[in-house]
């Protein structure tokens, strides 16, 4: 079978090439790798704020510790965890799959928080 | 030194020595399992009695937080050195010293090394339990246990006897659970049960660990969520003294035959339970800081006679 034996497909290909191709490719690239989404959680006065944060898949969440005491960000199921964060230290994690991600501070376990990941 | 205390130094003269540096320090006593705060004069008037146990003195130091340099105390290293100097200057030598945790601030090798250097040369063996600040390395306690874990079990628990008193060192800062407080865990509780099984109910018990073994303030995590199981095992003993750190202030509680005492830090104070939006280093006027830091001397006389705890501030 030759490459252009189907006339319909041949026309479609020509149209695709004829239409402003650069714009089309740019749009496709944008869909494949959307602009990075970021959210923040502050760790202050022995609390995660906001305590529950809802994000869309692909969002990178950054925690910043503003306390003079070190804290950690540790998933209850240990699927992610930070090192001990001293004052002004940060920790980032990108959530790709929908779901509820409960976490706590492994040094001060009464400090708890949750990231809810769901399609927007 | 114990012999010296018995023969060379009367109880009155020893306590008078203590009073000399204790200033307005409170004296807490325990008699027959009932703890009470009594005046120093009353303590001095009590006749010394000797039995199976020998009188001795030991010392508690806590929460040195080597490496801490924030506004609440930019020189925590310096105040730890000051504590060591005060211990060295005591008119008598303690038989042993217990450190109730948070030796370092961030569990780094450099901080552990510095702490070891500062705390060396105290002239008495030092027994350590870790605080959560000593267990926050990536190895979750590896740094602490490589230094102080020799001869201990699990995450560092152990016991030893001295002059008829049974000392128990607990770790309640490992493997903490989401939403909980401090935690001993089933393995440690099983060990504690076995360890106590061979002890006579008349043996005085001293338990030490970092976070209080009674609930001081749940909202701040100041308690141990499975401590009731440990306390049940201690119930049959006539004299149980529980010494903790973590909250950087002196608080006591009595529950049956068990008395609980938390100690001051040598590094920085923390707010009284519920007196601030959160726990954490409390910044006070510089001139006020020394009055909020301190060390503690414990004078053990005999059996269910009082254990006198004298808290000495840096002021």
- CATH C-level class of the largest domain in chain A is Mainly Beta
Low-confidence stretches of chain B: 1-50
Shape of chain A: globular
* CATH structural architecture of the largest domain in chain A: Sandwich
Classify the secondary structure makeup of chain B into a structural class: alpha/beta
Q: Largest sheet of chain B, described in full?
A: 7 strands, mixed
Quick structural summary:
The complex is a heterodimer of chains A (120) and B (315). With 120 residues, chain A is of the alpha/beta class. Chain A has helices spanning 7-18, 21-32; strands at residues 37-44, 47-49, 52-55, 59-65, 74-75, 90-95, 99-104, 112-117.
Structural summary, described in words:
The complex is a heterodimer of chains A (120) and B (315). Chain A has 120 residues and is of the alpha/beta class. Chain A folds into two domains: 1-33, no CATH class; 37-117, Immunoglobulin-like (Sandwich). Helices cover 20% and strands 35% of the residues of chain A. In chain A, the strands form two sheets. In chain A, strands 2-1-4-6 form a four-stranded mixed β-sheet, with no helix packed on it. In chain A, strand 7 (99-104) and strand 8 (112-117) form a beta hairpin. The longest helix of chain A is centred in the N-terminal third of the chain and has 12 residues, at 7-18. Mean pLDDT of chain A is 82; it is low at 1-5 and 10-30. The radius of gyration of chain B is 18 Å and the shape is globular. Chain B contains eight helices and 13 strands. Chain B is α/β, with parallel strands linked by helices and 315 residues long. The model of chain B is unreliable at 1-50 (pLDDT under 50). Helix content of chain B is 24%, strand content 21%. In chain B, strand 1 and strand 2 form a beta hairpin. Chain B has one domain (2-313): Purple Acid Phosphatase, chain A, domain 2. In chain B, helix 7 runs parallel beside helix 8 (227-234). In chain B, the strands form two sheets. Chain B has a seven-stranded mixed β-sheet with strand order 2-1-13-12-3-4-5, with helices on one face. In chain B, strands 6-7-8-9-11-10 form a six-stranded mixed β-sheet, with no helix packed on it. Chain B has helices at residues 2-8, 11-22, 40-45, 76-88, 109-118, 142-148, 186-197, 227-234; strands at residues 27-31, 34-37, 56-61, 96-99, 126-128, 158-162, 165-169, 205-208, 240-244, 251-255, 258-262, 294-300, 307-313. Classes of the chains: A alpha/beta (120), B alpha/beta (315). The interface between A and B is medium-sized, with 23 and 27 residues.
């Amino acid at each position: 079978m030759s490459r252009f034996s189907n006339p319909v497909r041949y026309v479609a290909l020509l149209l695709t090439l004829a239409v402003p191709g650069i714009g089309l490719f740019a749009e496709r690239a944008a869909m494949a790798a959307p602009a990075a989404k970021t959210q923040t959680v502050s760790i202050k006065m022995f609390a995660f704020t906001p305590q529950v944060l809802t994000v869309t898949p692909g969002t990178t969440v950054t925690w910043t510790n503003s306390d003079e005491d070190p804290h950690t960000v540790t998933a209850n199921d240990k699927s992610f965890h930070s090192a001990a964060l001293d004052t002004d230290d940060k920790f980032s994690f990108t959530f790709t799959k929908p779901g509820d991600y409960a976490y706590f501070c492994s040094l001060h376990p009464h400090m708890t928080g949750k990231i809810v990941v769901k399609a927007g | 030194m114990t012999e010296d205390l018995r023969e060379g130094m009367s109880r009155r003269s020893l306590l008078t020595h203590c009073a000399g540096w204790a200033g307005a320090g409170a004296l807490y006593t325990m008699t027959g399992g009932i703890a009470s705060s009594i005046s120093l004069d009353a303590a001095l008037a009590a006749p010394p009695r000797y039995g199976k146990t020998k009188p001795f003195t030991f010392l508690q130091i806590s929460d040195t937080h080597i490496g801490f340099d924030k506004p609440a105390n930019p020189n925590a290293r310096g105040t730890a050195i000051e504590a060591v100097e005060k211990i060295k200057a005591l008119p008598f030598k303690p038989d042993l010293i217990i450190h109730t945790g948070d030796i370092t601030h961030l569990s780094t090798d450099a901080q552990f090394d510095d702490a070891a250097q500062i705390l060396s040369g105290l002239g008495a063996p030092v027994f350590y339990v870790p605080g959560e600040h000593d267990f926050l390395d990536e190895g979750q306690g590896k740094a602490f246990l490589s230094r102080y874990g020799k001869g201990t079990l699990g995450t560092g628990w152990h016991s030893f006897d001295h002059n008829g008193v049974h000392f128990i060192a607990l770790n309640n800062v490992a493997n903490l659970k989401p939403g909980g407080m401090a935690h001993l865990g089933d393995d440690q509780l099983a060990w504690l049960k076995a360890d106590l099984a061979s002890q006579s109910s008349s043996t005085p018990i001293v338990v030490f660990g970092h976070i209080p073994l009674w609930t001081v303030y749940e909202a701040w995590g100041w308690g141990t969520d499975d401590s009731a199981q440990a306390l049940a095992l201690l119930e049959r003993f006539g004299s149980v003294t529980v010494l903790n750190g973590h909250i950087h202030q002196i608080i006591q509680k009595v529950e049956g035959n068990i008395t609980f005492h938390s100690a001051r830090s040598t590094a920085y104070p923390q707010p009284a339970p519920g007196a601030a939006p959160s726990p954490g280093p409390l910044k006070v006027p510089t001139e006020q800081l020394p009055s909020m830091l301190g060390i503690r001397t414990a004078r053990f006389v005999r059996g269910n006679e009082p254990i006198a705890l004298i808290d000495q501030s840096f002021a």
